[in-house]
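A favour, since you know our structure tokens better than I do. Just paste the record in under my message, thanks.
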Amino acid sequence: MDIVRPELKRKRRLLLIIYGAMGLIIIVLVTVGLSRLKAAAPTVDKSTVWTDVVTRGPMLREVRGLGTLVPETIRVIPAATDGRVERRLLLPGTPVSAKTVILELSNSELQQSVLDAGFQLKGAEAEYNNLKAQLDNQVMEQRSKAAGVRSEFHQAQLQQDANEQLYKQGLTSEIIWKTSQVKAEELAKQNEIAEKQVDTFAQSIEAQLAVQQARVDRQRALYGLKQHQLDQLHVRSGIDGVLQELAVEVGQQVAPGTILARVAQPAHLKAQLKIAETQANDIAIGQKALIDTHNGAIPGHVTRIDPSVQNGTVTVDAALDGMVPPGSRPDLSVEGTIEIERLADVLSTGRPVHGEADSTVGLFKLAEAGSEAVRVRVKLGHTSVNKVEILQGLGAGDQVILSDMSAWDNFDRVRLR
């Protein structure tokens, strides 16, 4: 028969409690330890990342933009008057001279107004000639009358002199002498008045003819204007060059000011570049440029900077200082690089994917063995097309990853294999 021993039962229960407490403590310690372990560094294929070495020395600052070649001289040809397009004599791309006719327009009302203006001019000229003839006849009459008065005056003077001599010799009476003297004086006054009338009438002739001449000149100017408008129905290029565009079709009715065509001089081209507004702040007139036409590079210099921003870009014009490669023509796509400045002695490396000027970014710096990379905070300075200035965070000889590492933003280090 078994004998019950209560002390063994208590001892076994106490051991179970102790073992359970120890197990719980171990579980807690393991959990805390695991929670304090750092996450394992991810592995990155070394052949998929782009790296560069930080160097000290000169750095060339440049900005780059896409653009097109455009003519320096473009003539836009507007319609001078209402008209209907009758003929298109040329097609775009055709070489033209200044007098080459591109289009022919028609305007029946203008043709009629030219005829009317011509008849009005002839009428005004006829009125001028008629008035001139009438005034010439009148002045001849005035001069004839003045000549008659002058003749009577001279006769009266002779009679006065003769009567004076006879009176002194006692051969005539004093009354006859005095009478002839009064008559001579009276005719002298009439002669003076007649001469003044002739002069006054001559001056009035000039004034009357000037009024009529003004009417003739006005009609002649109107006729010339109408003829010029009629001649402009034959649309000419105006400059030597190449017809770039015809903006109207045969049969189309156009109003004054409607753009009909564009003519350019392809021998004088310039590059028109679109530069990102964030990179255009340091561009200045006269800076050197290099224009890549994909068929050769042409040196040039900046001649104009557009003051406005459109779609996030600034338009910059660059004159071409070298020979244009064969095949270059207006609207040809080009790529331009503008030299901003040369920094003498700075730390620099290749430009990272996410690296703006005067910003602080996180870059992965390779360890000495090259088996892993550690994230460091790097302060950037000036930037160029493919270079960036390093202000803080890296030293000469450091090797950094420049490619996009945003997929590992949550890690401070990565392993490279």
In short: The helical segments are 6-36, 108-169, 174-231. The chain has a mean pLDDT of 86. Residues 75-107+233-264 form a domain with the OB fold (Dihydrolipoamide Acetyltransferase, E2P) fold (CATH 2.40.50.100).
